[in-house]
Amino acid sequence: MENSFGSNLNSKRSGARALLTIAIAVGSLAGNPILAADPAQAPKYTGPGSCSSPACHGGVQDRTETSVLQNEYSTWVVRDKHAQAYTVLTNPLGTRMAKILGLPKPDTAPKCLACHALDVPLEQRARTFDLTDGVGCENCHGPASAWLGPHTARDWKYEKSLELGMYNTRDLVKRSEKCLSCHLGTPEKFVDHEMLAAGHPDLYFELGSFMSVMPVHWKEVEKDPWFAVRTLGVGQAVQLREQLRRVAREAQGGIWPEYAELECFSCHHSLTAAKDSWRQDRGYPGRRPGNPPLNLARFVVFRKIIQEADRGAAQQLESEMGRVYSLVTALNSDRRQVASQATSAAETADRIAQRLAGVQLQFDQAMTLRLMKSIAGDAESIAQQGEGSAEQATMVMDSLFIAYNQNAHLGNEAQIKAALHTLFEQLKDQSAYHAFKFARDLRSLNSLLP
Ligand code: HEC
Ligand code: HEC
Ligand code: HEC
Ligand code: HEC
After folding, report:
1. What is the pLDDT of residue 73?
2. What is the pLDDT of residue 38?
3. Does ligand 2 have an atom closer than 6 angstroms to the CB of 135?
4. pLDDT attached to residue 39
5. Sorting pLDDT into bands at 50, 70 and 90, what band is 97?
6. How far is Cα 349 from Cα 345, in angstroms, rounded to an integer?
7. Residues ≥6 apart with Cβ < 8 Å to 315
8. What is the pLDDT of residue 40?
9. Predicted confidence (pLDDT) per residue in 312-369, tens digit
10. How many angstroms separate the alpha carbon of residue 288 from the centre of ligand 3?
């Protein structure tokens, strides 16, 4: 189904390879701890070319008779932006970034290759490996050398591939972690305010929307019709957890306050006449007027999901987030205290992620509708947290609507789509974001829900 986030994303922000003989050591067992400790025996990365044979994942049309589509390679190379990830490093923006940051070249800098390619140690690169392939199959699915040969056998089980080093993208927590390793960052790879100031696009994410923008190259194995709702819930939990861990790291050892943790447009908005200022109209609850607030985008929408899923945990996270917010927003708090509060909140978010991913919790039509209504019903407070929060709310509402509409019919589908489009329009000029106008439009969307 056409997703309005996809078509709005671009406006808002800015061949056939040789069939390769599989020269792999099937004998190098990744599951064997003794062998895996020796780097020469560790599973190797073979490059996406190894998956591109027409009989494997390089077909042109979807196969209907098998459980995998077998055109994954064609989809990735032609339509998936990940295949361009290396090439964009040397576009005019990447080149200027490197110059500002004092890097010799963007396409050789480990700082950039970390997320724009598969920058693994030399001894883990098979003969067929090519760095210029960008973000390829093995960035997400793990090193293929040990399972590439055997995984095509008729009675081969997914679990066997996992034992041989395949990454478990079916597991929603792991899937979110994998995406966020590049779309939010890790201790080893990050986009901080220095990189943003040099021109790097801001990193934002919502698993539901980003999964639907990525050209589909899989069939969802999960049969639950409300799986998309679970997916976005888990994605929200994991991204909050990862942001809190990052805050803890920065407060402990990095540059602090790290501007990239704060609401960008509390600093980067355009000034208006005092009478037209929604910020002065709103006031500055919970902080010294003028102090930039912690960016709560990864919490204000998520808190609605947890209230549905786990009320006890919701209360605990509310109070922990309240403390992190006050400490960060005060700007001069004790750094160890910031780190320890952020770490506790991250632990709570982690427990919630596991609960949301677990089978004990069921998602259904009624809950999906309640979620949409409770997010849209909180229009004022979400909108007043700033542009980043409005953006999360819009993406999540879009994902929830798509999931709802696929399973239950709404008579006014076209009107709801138009209302979502209006919200995306409000985010186009980020520096001109206006909380009261956004809240008004989110309320209109709410009034269209049954
Ligand atoms: C933490 C991971 C990460 C690191 C490190 C990183 N990037 Fe990126 N970069 C991304 C992601 C993710 C996007 C896509 C953002 C989006 O659209 O949501 C991106 C987008 C870009 C773009 C815009 C691409 C386009 O389509 O116009 C450029 C240029 C770029 N990065 C250059 C660099 C350079 C140069 C470096 C090193 C100085 C670097 N990046 C380091 C993750 C990263
Ligand atoms: C940016 C991450 C990413 C890249 C790059 C990527 N995939 Fe995937 N792939 C996923 C996700 C997420 C799923 C869906 C979850 C799942 O089914 O495991 C998936 C599913 C699949 C499946 C179905 C697996 C299953 O669970 O039955 C196959 C087969 C597959 N991918 C092959 C490929 C091939 C071949 C390439 C390279 C040409 C590739 N993928 C590139 C993320 C990626
Ligand atoms: C190894 C790093 C890496 C991983 C892992 C990764 N991405 Fe990306 N992703 C990137 C980079 C870099 C770009 C920007 C590429 C470009 O601009 O050409 C990108 C771009 C995208 C885009 C296009 C965004 C736009 O602005 O159009 C989507 C959607 C996306 N990724 C989704 C995902 C999802 C979903 C996952 C997990 C299943 C994932 N990515 C995992 C690095 C990664
Ligand atoms: C505490 C205030 C503050 C916060 C919060 C902040 N910035 Fe900045 N930013 C600055 C300052 C100061 C500069 C340097 C401006 C100059 O030199 O003219 C800057 C520079 C920039 C620039 C380059 C200047 C330009 O006009 O192109 C970009 C892009 C940028 N920031 C993006 C962001 C993003 C994205 C976020 C949120 C993730 C953010 N900033 C959060 C204060 C802030």
Report:
1. 82
2. 58
3. yes
4. 55
5. very high
6. 6
7. none
8. 61
9. 999 999 999 999 999 999 999 999 999 999 999 999 999 999 999 998 999 999 999 9
10. 37
Residue nearest to atom 24 of ligand 1 (CA): 88
Q: Ligand 4 pocket: which of 190, 200, 262, 267 to mutate (most atoms <8 Å of CB)?
A: 267
Q: So what's the pLDDT on residue 165?
A: 93
Q: Cα of 315 to ligand 1 centre, how many Å?
A: 36
Pick left, alpha or beta for residue 162 (phi over 0 → left; psi -120 to 50 → alpha; otherwise beta). Answer: alpha
pLDDT reported for residue 353: 97
Kindly give the distance from the C-alpha atom of residue 231 to the centroid of ligand 3, in angstroms, as a whole number.
17
- From the CA of 203, which ligand is nearest? 1
The pair of three-digit structure tokens given for residue 27, joined into one six-digit string: 């004998």
Name 272's Cβ contacts closer than 8 Å, sequence gap at least 6.
none
Q: What are the CB-based long-range contacts (under 8 Å, 24+) for 438-441?
A: 438/379, 438/383, 438/390, 439/379, 439/380, 439/382, 439/383, 439/384, 440/379
Tell how far the Cα of 294 is from the centroid of ligand 4, in angstroms. Answer: 15
CA atoms within 13 A on the CB side of 435: 23
Task: Please give the angle made by the CA atoms of 312, 171 and 319, to the nearest 5 degrees.
Answer: 20
| The pair of three-digit structure tokens given for residue 229, joined into one six-digit string | 């709702």
Nearest CA to ligand 4 atom 14: 197
CA–CA separation, 28 vs 348, rounded Å? 39
Question: Relative to the CA of 9, which ligand 1 atom is closest?
Answer: 17
Say yes or no: CB of residue 12 within 6 Å of ligand 1: no
Q: Which of 29-38, 155-164, 269-278, 402-411 has the lowest mean pLDDT?
A: 29-38
pLDDT band of residue 303 (cuts 50, 70, 90) is very high
Q: Which ligand is nearest to the CA of 90?
A: 1
